[in-house]
Write a structure and sequence with these properties.
Helix content is about 45%, strand content about 15%.
C-alpha cells in the first residue's frame, strides 16, 4: 500500500471515529438529561427576574419559601468526597457571590448562613455589592460570637450538635444555648435530623420560635441503623436516605404551630428530575403555609436557581 493511500485511510478512520464518538456523546447527554450551562454571571445588583419565589411571613418579614442553602458553597455535598471536592473547586468567592445575586433576582431573600471558613468574607463581599439576605444562621458553637459578627435575623442550634446532645442526654446544654440566643434579642430555633427532637422540645415547652428539620434522619446510631437495615451497616452510615423518613419529619412539622424549615428535601442530589418534582410537591403539601425549605444550589451544569423556583411555583399555584 502506498504511503499516500495509507495516510488517506488513517485520516478517514480518525474522522469517522471522532464523528461516532461525538454522536455517542450527544446520545449519552440526551439520555442523561444534559442541559446548557446556566446564565452568564451576575455582578452585583441587577433587574429582578419575571419569576419570583412565593413568600411567607416569618416573624413580620416576608421571605421566600425557598431559602438559599449553604452546604454546596463550602464543599459539604453529603454525597461523596469527589462530589464535595467538585463543589469546593467550583465555588470560588466570585461564584458564591454570583449565585447569591442570582438568587436575589428570583426573590430568594433569605440565606441559611453558617459561620465557617471564608463564609464571613463571602457574605461581606455580597453585601458590599448591594446584595441583601435575611440570615437564618445554623449556629455551630457559641451564639454570642456569631451574633456579634453578622447580626443574623434568626439563628438555630445546628442539627448535628443537637442530635448528639439528644443521644447523650445533654439537652439541657441546648436549652441553655437557646436562652443565650434569646438574651441577644434574636429569633431562636432548634435544628435536628430527628422528628423526636422536635416532639421533645415541644413537650418540654422550651422558649424557642422555630425549627429546622432534615427530612432524612442522618444521625442514627449504629444500633438504629442495624434495626432499619436488617442488621446491615452500609459503607457511609452517616449518609442514609430512607424513603420512609420524610413523612415522619413532615408529621411533626404539621403538629407544631411554630414555623419550620425542612431541609434536604431533595436527598442531597440523589433524586431524578421526576423525583425532584415529586419531592417539592410532597414537601409543600406536607408542611404548613408558614413553613419553608432550605435548598442548596450547585448550578455547575443546570440553572438550578430557576428550576427550584419553578418547582415551588408549580406546586404552590395549585394549593
Amino acid at each position: 500500500m502506498s504511503n499516500s493511500r495509507r495516510s488517506f485511510l488513517s485520516t478517514a478512520f480518525a474522522a469517522g471515529a471522532a464523528a461516532t464518538a461525538a454522536g455517542q456523546s450527544q446520545s449519552r447527554d440526551a439520555q442523561q438529561g444534559w442541559t446548557p450551562p446556566p446564565p452568564d454571571a451576575v455582578k452585583g445588583q441587577t433587574a429582578a427576574a419575571a419569576l419570583q419565589v412565593p413568600t411567607m411571613k416569618f416573624f413580620g418579614v416576608a421571605i421566600g419559601r425557598v431559602v438559599l442553602g449553604t452546604n454546596p458553597f463550602y464543599g459539604f455535598s453529603h454525597y461523596n468526597n469527589n462530589y464535595s471536592v467538585m463543589m469546593q473547586d467550583y465555588y470560588t468567592p466570585d461564584k458564591v457571590c454570583d449565585v447569591m445575586h442570582q438568587a436575589n433576582r428570583f426573590g430568594i431573600n433569605a440565606f441559611n448562613y453558617v459561620h465557617l471558613s471564608r463564609a464571613p468574607q463571602d457574605l461581606a463581599r455580597f453585601q458590599a455589592e448591594g446584595g441583601k439576605m435575611h440570615l437564618i444562621n445554623q449556629c455551630i458553637g457559641d451564639a454570642e460570637t456569631v451574633y456579634k459578627a453578622v447580626k443574623p435575623f434568626a439563628m438555630y442550634k445546628q442539627g448535628e450538635e443537637v442530635d448528639k446532645a439528644f443521644k447523650n442526654g445533654e439537652m439541657d446544654d441546648i436549652k441553655d444555648w437557646c436562652k443565650t440566643a434569646r438574651d441577644l434579642g434574636v429569633i431562636v430555633g432548634v435544628g435536628t435530623h430527628k422528628p423526636e427532637v422536635i416532639s421533645y422540645v415541644e413537650d418540654q415547652g422550651w422558649d424557642v420560635d422555630f425549627y429546622a428539620g432534615c427530612v432524612y434522619n442522618r444521625t442514627r446510631t449504629g444500633d438504629e441503623i442495624k434495626h432499619v437495615l436488617n442488621g446491615q451497616i452500609p459503607e457511609m452510615p452517616g449518609e442514609i436516605y430512607l424513603r420512609s423518613d420524610p413523612p415522619k419529619m413532615y408529621k411533626v412539622m404539621r403538629q407544631t404551630k411554630k414555623p419550620c424549615f425542612a431541609f434536604k428535601i431533595l436527598a442531597a442530589g440523589r433524586l431524578s428530575e421526576r423525583e425532584m418534582d415529586q419531592a417539592y410537591q410532597t414537601a409543600f403539601e406536607s408542611i404548613k403555609p408558614s413553613d419553608g425549605v432550605f435548598v442548596g444550589i450547585f448550578p455547575r451544569v443546570r440553572d438550578e436557581i430557576r428550576e427550584n423556583v419553578e418547582r415551588a411555583h408549580r406546586v404552590l399555584a395549585r394549593s
